[in-house]
Amino acid sequence: MTTYEQAVQIAKILDSKIAQDIKIIEISDVTIIADYMVIATGRSSTQVKSLADEVEYQMDELGYSVSHIEGHRSNSWILLDYVDIIVNVFNEEAREFYDLERLWQDGKEIDLSDILE
Questions:
Q1: Rounded-to-integer distance, Cα 15 and Cα 117, Å
Q2: 64 CB-near residues (< 8 Å, 6+ apart)
Q3: Are the beta carbons of 51 and 42 closer than 8 angstroms?
Q4: H-helix segments, 1-117
Q5: What is the CA radius of gyration of the chain?
Q6: Which of 49, 74, 83, 116 has the largest CB neighbor count within 10 A?
């Protein structure tokens, strides 16, 4: 599975668990830290944790282990580092505050309209 396909798979996992405002931003031309940034919002701290846990579980089942996890105790923002893909799951308040879409505006947002339901 290519890195792009992994990012899309992560978006689909988040969508299946009713994450809101899912975005994939290709950042490989802007930075060396990763190729893709996946961003999603959960409606509560419980859902934020549940979304992150589900991504970790399903990607592990596919043979892709998370390299590093940040924020698992806070439940307002959890970051899953898959080396070439960074997954950020926020609650609404944290997502607005950190505004990663603005920070990575030089990246290319992937159109998910044909990918997610």
A1: 8
A2: 1, 6, 82
A3: yes
A4: 3-16, 45-61, 92-98, 100-103
A5: 13
A6: 49
